[in-house]
Amino acid sequence: MLSEVLDPESAVYVSEVLMQFALRDLTIGEVLSTQATRHRDKPCLVFETVSFTYQEVELETNRLANGLGSAGVDFGEHVAVMLGNGPEILLSIFALGKLGAVAVPLNTSARGKGLAYNLDHADATTLITDAQFLPHIAAIIHLTSSLKRLIIVGEPPSGADLPADLIVLKFNDLRSSNTLAPTTDVKYNDQAFLMYTSGTTGPSKAVMYTHAYALTWAGGFADAHSYRSDDIMYVSMPLFHGNALHSATYGCLLVGATVVIKPKFSASKFWRDIYTYGATLTNLLGSMGDILWNLDPSEYERKNTLRQIMAGPIPDRGRQMEERWHVQLVSCFGLTDFGVSNFSTVDDPPSKFGSCGLVSPHFEVRIVDDNDFEVPDGQLGEIVLRTKTPWHSASGYYKMPTETAASLRNQWFHTGDLGICDADGFLYFKDRKKDAIRRRGENISAFEVEQVLMDYEGIAEVCAYAVAIDGDEEVGVSLITTPGHNFVPADLIKWCEGRMSYFMVPRFIDTREDLPRTESGKIQKHSLRTDAQSNVKQLWDRVSEGIEVGRL
């Protein structure tokens, strides 16, 4: 049992103990069962005015798992979960884990061909979704081949045109009266998740996670960042991403802490929420820290209860943030595709502040040149990783053996990120080598942006890239218009809405007569990116034009 690896004198899982002695017991069902016994009446999940104790989470997920099983969801089936932040997304994912089904969390902003691709590529037989997304699902369901079951949270809107042979069920109707745990024999090395990550030069990839990997990922955070059973984790980032789901939520489950879930990040409500809930931990990615920094100090900020913020990355003004907010900032290095290798901690020397920290005892890290030879300390190169302990990394890309093999060249996982290691072994992230865009914590595939835009009648050729601005990245595109077409950038933006996730919609547009190319005819994306960055004020900018792009 998992209880054998928990120090009875401490409320904290020591991840090294968990990993060495209980790896074969690591499943979400075992974790929840153990924690429901240890922390029976303690709040586990809090959302708005709703709260679930550990025992209630255990019983609710048993009910839901049994209901899903009765509805035909079997061991090993792939179940897409397209839900906003709330109890339903976590109860669904936990219940699927108990059944041995594979959860496929989908970005709630997915639209059009991107959404259809995710469902079809994942071989999803079932989709659990909020009723508000039904119009978007109905618009693309004819492009999917495996979906046979739809489970709806909330009341469906009228007029959603769904196939007659699709089984449609209501989420609340699946909450069985049977509170006994499912008898499915789920093992540590069974697949638990397909986590979609941005593609770089191709379509998005689904990364395969076992139960053990999802939980050792969480255990690494809980140990390195000293999660405690009396902690309250404030989660405002989307739970379909690994940071909020694995690092924060699963990490807290492992130590018996409380998780407060908010629908989304709100700078205006952030400090009031922190004070109201008594939150002690939270995670901030990208420009979230800068957004909070630019707020006028408030009463709630001054009396906030946070002791630690995990920032990715730590901003340049990190020390000022610590002083102003009376918190400690920590960070890490990792990626959905493989794992989390490095953690900065509150015990690191002050001179190492801003680094990604030392490597975990379960990983190896090297900095290499373009030919995979290790470079000297302090020299820039690509960060490559490998594990020293079984089941501590992802299992590869689903249905993409060629891409999986390529990422593991010379037996090291190639992150596509550039960094340096100093003489003391501290890792510093510097830039991305791979062709991806990161905006407000979302990884965006330039390839997928380009694929959607090429369907627009007025575009003959297009290239997408990142434009750095205000401490974040925005989507920029350089394009050639079709002859005789009266191209209006604002019309393109309107056309994009509903065809791609809101955060993928370009902000900057650069219209050209031609695009720079190599001798072999390939577009020189780096040249376009450099030009755009140098002349950003001359580009068409939808923000300057007053055009807002909504989430829905």
Walk me through what this model shows.
A hairpin with a 2-residue loop joins strand 1 (43-47) and strand 2. Residues 1-17 have low confidence and may be disordered. The radius of gyration is 23 Å and the shape is globular. It starts with 14 loop residues before the first helix and ends in an 11-residue tail after the last strand. Helices cover 28% and strands 25% of the residues. A 7-stranded mixed beta sheet has the order 2-1-11-10-12-13-14, with helices on both faces. Strands 4-3-5-6-7 form a 5-stranded parallel beta sheet, with helices on one face. Helix 1 packs antiparallel against helix 7 (211-224) and helix 5 crosses helix 6. It has 552 residues and is of the alpha/beta class.
Topology:
Blueprint lengths: L14 H7 L6 H11 L4 E5 L2 E4 H17 L7 E5 L4 H13 L2 E4 L6 H10 L4 E5 L3 H7 L8 E5 L13 E4 L20 E7 L7 E6 H14 L7 E4 L6 H14 L2 E4 L5 H11 L3 E5 L2 H6 L5 H4 L5 E5 L5 H8 L2 E3 L1 E4 L3 E5 L14 E2 L3 E6 L12 E7 L13 H7 L5 E9 L5 E6 L3 E4 L2 E4 H8 L5 E11 L2 E10 L7 H8 L11 E4 L13 H10 L5 E2 L11
Parallel strand pairs: 1-11, 3-4, 3-5, 5-6, 6-7, 10-11, 10-12, 12-13, 13-14, 25-26
Antiparallel strand pairs: 1-2, 8-9, 15-16, 16-17, 18-19, 19-20, 20-21, 22-23, 24-25, 26-27
In short:
The chain is 28% helix and 25% strand.
Indicate the structural class.
alpha/beta
Radius of gyration: 23 Å
Largest sheet: 7 strands, mixed
Terminal CA distance: 44 Å
Contiguous helical run count? 16
The chain-level mean pLDDT equals 89
Shape: globular
Measured by DSSP, the beta-strand proportion falls in 25-35%
Placed side by side, the strands forming the largest sheet appear as 2-1-11-10-12-13-14
What are the low-pLDDT stretches, counting only 5+ consecutive residues below 50?
1-17
Give the helix proportion (percent range): 25-40%
Strand segment tally: 27
